C-alpha cells in the first residue's frame, strides 16, 4: 500500500473519530520521514524483528513517557499556563485538568497523572467526606471522557488518607478503563485494612495494580519515582526518553548453545540495542527541541532525569529454545513439564538470563540516562507480537496455579528497575472471597514481587498488559469503533493473540500506534 | 499427646493437594484432599476418591509410561506411583475395578507441615477435604494440633469439609483444633438422603447441631439437583431448620453439574442458574440468610 492509499483509508474509516484520524495521520507522516542514521547491523536486526523501536516514530520529537512534578506545579503555578498557585481543592483539580493537556507522551496523551493522594492532601482541610467524594468522582469522569486512553496512570498510597480511600471508592464504583491505577503498598506504612480495600477493588474491576513501594523507592533517589502507562517505573520529574526492546526468542534462535548465548549472542544484540537507543535519544535531546519546553523551564521536569528503557520480551520462548523443549500446548499445561514456568531447570535458566541482562545494563553507559544508564524493563508486548510471550511471563494458557506462578517468576523481579508485569488470572470464584486476593498479593510482595497485578475472570473490565479494556467494548468495536483509543489495540490483541479464547487472561500489549484495518 | 497421636495415626492417604483455593473456606486456602469416603453418592464428581486402593495391581499394565510398579515388603504388595513419569492420562482411574486411584501419596504430619510452611506466605488457612476427611480423624486432629501449637503457623485457620457423618465423640476430638466446619446436607428426607448417598442423615443433623452449639459451623452446603433433591418440596421444614442455626453460618447453594460425574447421575438434569435462584429466593422469603450462590455454572 502506498502512503497516500493508507492516508486515504484512514480519513475514510467510519469507525474512527476525527481526533483519532488526526493521530493516525500524524503517525503515518512521522514514519514517512527518513529513519535516523543507524548501522547496517542495527537496520538488519530491526527489520528481522530482533530489535524493535516500538513504533515511536522515525524522528522522535517527544519522550516516550513524561512524569512532571505536579506537586511543584500546584505550589508554584505556571507562567506559561498563566496559572496561580492552587489555593483549594477546586483550583488544584482545575489546574491539573489544564496541565494534563500539555504533557506529551508517545500516545499524545499524558501517561502520568501524578501521585494524586499526596499532591491533593494539602487541599482537603475542612472538607467533609461526601464533598470530597463528589469532586473526585466528577474529576474521574472528566479524565475518562476527555483523555480517553488507558495508558494514562494515577498513583496512590502507601499512606492511608482520605483521597486515597475516595479514589478507591470511586474507581470501584465507576469501573472505567481510564485512568489506570497503581496502589503503592509498604508493609511498614500501609494498614492491612487498606490493602484489603484495594484487593476487593481488584475483584470488582481488576484495578488497581499493586506496587511494592519499598523496592521501587530504593531503586531511585530522594526525588522519587512514579508508575506510568503500564507498569513502567521511572524517575519523577523525568521519564523515559525512548524504549527499545530486544526479542529474546530471536536472540536464542541465533545461538548455537547456552554458553554461546551468554558469551556471544546476547552481548552482541544488546550492543545493537544500545546503538539504537543512542541514535533515538540523541535526536530527541539534541535536535527535537523538546527540552526547551515550559515543563523544563519551570522546573517540572529535568533533562538529566530521563533514561532510555532497555526492554526485553520472549523470555519463555528463549529458555525453551535453549533447552531444546518443544512448544508447550495449553492442553498439556496441567501435566508435568520441562518448560519455562513449570520446571526448576528452566526457571533457573530464565533467572540467569535476567541476571546477565542486569549486569549488561548496569555496566553500559549511555549519553542520556539516569546516572548515565538505561533502565532494564520487562516489556509487556504489543498487539503485533505473535507466538512470542511478553516480558518474562509464562505463555498464556500454560500458567500453573497462582502460587507456583508467583514462585516461578519472583526471582526476576529484582532486576527490572523500570518495571515488570506479570499478570495473574484468578478464577472468578475469588469475587466472593476478596481476602484470598489480599493473601495472594501479600505473599507475592513478600517474595520480592515488584508489582502484583491480577485479572479476575469474568470481569468485563480486563487488563491487556497494563491498560484496561472492556470486553463489551471490543464486541462493539468491529461495527462502531470506540470513543476510547485503546479499545482498538485491545480488539487487535484479541484477534492476533487469542486472549479471549482462553480463560480470560492477558496479552501483551503496550503500545502499537499502527493503523490496521 | 501430640507425639503419641502422630505415631498412632502415622500417615494419611492424600489424593491431592491444591495450593490455592478461594472456595473452601475464608480467604486463600491450601486444601488437602484425603482418600476414602464412607458415602457412595451417585452424584460424586470425584468417584475415585471414594474407595481405598487395595494394590491389586490391575492398573499397572495399562499405564503407558510405566509410572506404576508393585513393590513388596515383608510379603505385602504395595503399588507405587512415580509422579515424575506420570503423564496424568488417567487411564489407571478408568480401568480400576474399585474406582480407586493408585496416584495417592502417604504423608505423615511432619511432611504435611513442611508443605504448609512453604505455602505459608500465601494462605489464610488449611482445609482438609476428601473423600471424607473425618475418616482419618486421628491424623487430622494431630495435624491441626501441630499447626495450632506452632508459633509460625498458628495464625492459619483450620477448617474441615465433611459429609457430617462423624460421631459426636469424633467431633469432640477435633473441636479444640478446628476453626470451623463446612458440612454438606445432601437431602432433607431420610429416603432421599439414602437414595443419593446410600446412608441415613441422622448423624448429619446431629453434627450440624453440635457444631453450631460450639460456634464451629462455618457453612452448610446444599447441592441442588432438580428432580432429585427434596429441598424445594421440603422448603418450610428446611428453612425453619436453617434459620435456627447461628446467624453467622453461611448457607451455600451449589448447582449440580455433570462435570466428573459417572453412571446414573449422568441422566439427571443439571441445575440452571434460574433453578438455583428460585431456591434461594424461597429460602430468603422464609428468613434464611446469608445465602451464597455459585459464581460459576460449569
Ligand atoms: S495417569 Fe495413571 S495410567 Fe496415566 S500415566 Fe499416570 S499413573 Fe499411568
Ligand atoms: S488403583 Fe485400582 S486397579 Fe490400581 S492397584 Fe489400586 S485398586 Fe488395583
TrEMBL record, chain A:
Q: Which domain of life is it from?
A: Bacteria
Stated name of the protein: YjjI family glycine radical enzyme
Please tell me the species this chain comes from. Shewanella eurypsychrophilus
TrEMBL record, chain B:
One Pfam family per UniProt: Radical_SAM
InterPro entries xrefs: 4Fe4S_Fe-S-bd, 4Fe4S_Fe_S_CS, Aldolase_TIM, BssD/PflA/YjjW, Organic_radical-activating, Organic_radical_activase, Radical_activat_CS, rSAM
Q: Report the PROSITE patterns cross-referenced here.
A: 4FE4S_FER_1, 4FE4S_FER_2, RADICAL_ACTIVATING, RADICAL_SAM
Residues forming the Radical SAM core domain are 23-289
The coenzyme or cofactor needed here is:
[4Fe-4S] cluster
Tell me which UniProt keywords the record has, alphabetically: 4Fe-4S, Iron, Iron-sulfur, Metal-binding, Oxidoreductase, S-adenosyl-L-methionine
List, alphabetically, the PANTHER family matched: GLYCYL-RADICAL ENZYME ACTIVATING ENZYME YJJW-RELATED (PTHR30352:SF13), PYRUVATE FORMATE-LYASE-ACTIVATING ENZYME (PTHR30352)
Family the entry assigns: Belongs to the organic radical-activating enzymes family.
What is the protein's given name? YjjW family glycine radical enzyme activase
Which organism was this protein described from?
Shewanella eurypsychrophilus
Amino acid at each position: 500500500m502506498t502512503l497516500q492509499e493508507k492516508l486515504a483509508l484512514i480519513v475514510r474509516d467510519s469507525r474512527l473519530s476525527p481526533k483519532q484520524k488526526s493521530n493516525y495521520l500524524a503517525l503515518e507522516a512521522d514514519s514517512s520521514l527518513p529513519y535516523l542514521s543507524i548501522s547496517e547491523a542495527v537496520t538488519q536486526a530491526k527489520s528481522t524483528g530482533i530489535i524493535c523501536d516500538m513504533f515511536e516514530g522515525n524522528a522522535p520529537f517527544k519522550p516516550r513517557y513524561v512524569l512532571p512534578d505536579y506537586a511543584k506545579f500546584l505550589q508554584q503555578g505556571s507562567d506559561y499556563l498563566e496559572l496561580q498557585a492552587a489555593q483549594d481543592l477546586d483550583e488544584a483539580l482545575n489546574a491539573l485538568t489544564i496541565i494534563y493537556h500539555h504533557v506529551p507522551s508517545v500516545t499524545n496523551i499524558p501517561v502520568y497523572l501524578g501521585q494524586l493522594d499526596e499532591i491533593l492532601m494539602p487541599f482537603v482541610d475542612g472538607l467533609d467526606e461526601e464533598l470530597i467524594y463528589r469532586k473526585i468522582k466528577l474529576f474521574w469522569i472528566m479524565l475518562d471522557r476527555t483523555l480517553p486512553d488507558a495508558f494514562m496512570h494515577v498513583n496512590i498510597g502507601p499512606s492511608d488518607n482520605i483521597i486515597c480511600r475516595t479514589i478507591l471508592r470511586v474507581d470501584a464504583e465507576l469501573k472505567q478503563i481510564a485512568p489506570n491505577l497503581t496502589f503503592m503498598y509498604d508493609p511498614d506504612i500501609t494498614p492491612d485494612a487498606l490493602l484489603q480495600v484495594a484487593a476487593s477493588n481488584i475483584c470488582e474491576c481488576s484495578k488497581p495494580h499493586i506496587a511494592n513501594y519499598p523496592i521501587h523507592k530504593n531503586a531511585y533517589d530522594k526525588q522519587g519515582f512514579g508508575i506510568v502507562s503500564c507498569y513502567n517505573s521511572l524517575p519523577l520529574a523525568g521519564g523515559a526518553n525512548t524504549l527499545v526492546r530486544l526479542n529474546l526468542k530471536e536472540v536464542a534462535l541465533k545461538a548455537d548453545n547456552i554458553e554461546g548465548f551468554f558469551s556471544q549472542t546476547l552481548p552482541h544484540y544488546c550492543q545493537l540495542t544500545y546503538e539504537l537507543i543512542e541514535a533515538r535519544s540523541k535526536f530527541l535531546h539534541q535536535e527535537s527541541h523538546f527540552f526547551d519546553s515550559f515543563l523544563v523551564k519551570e522546573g517540572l521536569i529535568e533533562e538529566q532525569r530521563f533514561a532510555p528503557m532497555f526492554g526485553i520480551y520472549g523470555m519463555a520462548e528463549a529458555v525453551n529454545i535453549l533447552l531444546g523443549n518443544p512448544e508447550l500446548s495449553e492442553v498439556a499445561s496441567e501435566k508435568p513439564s520441562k518448560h519455562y514456568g513449570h520446571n526448576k531447570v528452566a526457571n533457573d535458566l530464565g533467572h540467569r538470563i535476567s541476571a546477565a541482562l542486569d549486569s549488561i545494563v548496569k555496566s553500559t553507559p549511555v549519553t542520556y540516562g539516569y546516572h548515565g544508564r538505561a533502565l532494564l524493563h520487562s516489556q509487556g508486548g504489543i498487539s503485533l507480537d505473535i507466538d512470542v510471550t511478553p516480558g518474562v511471563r509464562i505463555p498464556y494458557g500454560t500458567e500453573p496455579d497462582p502460587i507456583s506462578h508467583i514462585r516461578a517468576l519472583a526471582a526476576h523481579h529484582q532486576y527490572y528497575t523500570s518495571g515488570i508485569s506479570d499478570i495473574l488470572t484468578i478464577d472468578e470464584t475469588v469475587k466472593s472471597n476478596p481476602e484470598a486476593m489480599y493473601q495472594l498479593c501479600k505473599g507475592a510482595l513478600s517474595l520480592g514481587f515488584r508489582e502484583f497485578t491480577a485479572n479476575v475472570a469474568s470481569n468485563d473490565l480486563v487488563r491487556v498488559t497494563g491498560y484496561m479494556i472492556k470486553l463489551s467494548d471490543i464486541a462493539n468495536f468491529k461495527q462502531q469503533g470506540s470513543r476510547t483509543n485503546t479499545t482498538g489495540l485491545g480488539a487487535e490483541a484479541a484477534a492476533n493473540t487469542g486472549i479471549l479464547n482462553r480463560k480470560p487472561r492477558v496479552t501483551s500489549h503496550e503500545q502499537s500506534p499502527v493503523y490496521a484495518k | 499427646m501430640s507425639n503419641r497421636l502422630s505415631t498412632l495415626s502415622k500417615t494419611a492417604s492424600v489424593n491431592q493437594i491444591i495450593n490455592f483455593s478461594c472456595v473452601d473456606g475464608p480467604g486463600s486456602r491450601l486444601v488437602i484432599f484425603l482418600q476414602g469416603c464412607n458415602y457412595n453418592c451417585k452424584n460424586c464428581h470425584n468417584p475415585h476418591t471414594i474407595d481405598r486402593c487395595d494394590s491389586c495391581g490391575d492398573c499397572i499394565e495399562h499405564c503407558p509410561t510405566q509410572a506404576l510398579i508393585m513393590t513388596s515388603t515383608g510379603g505385602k504388595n504395595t503399588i507405587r506411583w512415580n509422579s515424575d513419569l506420570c503423564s496424568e492420562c488417567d487411564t489407571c482411574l478408568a480401568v480400576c475395578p474399585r474406582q480407586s486411584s493408585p496416584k495417592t501419596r502417604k504423608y505423615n504430619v511432619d511432611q504435611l507441615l513442611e508443605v504448609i510452611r512453604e505455602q505459608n506466605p500465601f494462605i489464610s488457612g488449611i482445609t482438609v477435604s476428601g473423600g471424607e476427611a473425618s475418616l482419618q480423624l486421628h491424623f487430622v486432629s494431630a495435624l491441626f494440633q501441630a499447626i495450632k501449637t506452632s508459633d509460625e503457623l498458628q495464625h492459619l485457620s483450620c477448617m474441615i469439609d465433611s459429609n457430617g457423618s462423624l460421631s459426636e465423640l469424633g467431633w469432640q476430638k477435633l473441636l479444640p483444633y478446628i476453626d470451623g466446619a463446612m458440612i454438606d446436607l445432601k437431602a432433607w428426607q431420610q429416603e432421599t438422603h439414602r437414595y443419593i448417598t446410600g446412608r441415613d442423615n441422622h448423624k448429619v443433623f446431629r453434627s450440624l447441631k453440635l457444631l453450631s452449639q460450639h460456634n464451629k459451623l462455618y457453612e452448610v452446603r446444599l447441592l441442588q439437583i432438580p428432580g432429585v433433591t427434596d429441598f424445594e418440596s421440603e422448603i418450610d421444614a428446611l428453612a425453619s431448620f436453617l434459620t435456627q442455626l447461628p446467624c453467622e453460618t453461611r448457607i451455600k447453594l451449589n448447582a449440580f453439574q455433570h462435570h466428573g460425574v459417572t453412571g446414573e447421575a449422568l441422566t439427571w438434569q443439571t441445575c440452571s442458574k434460574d433453578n438455583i435462584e428460585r431456591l434461594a429466593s424461597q429460602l430468603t422469603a422464609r428468613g434464611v440468610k446469608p445465602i451464597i450462590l455459585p459464581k460459576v455454572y460449569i
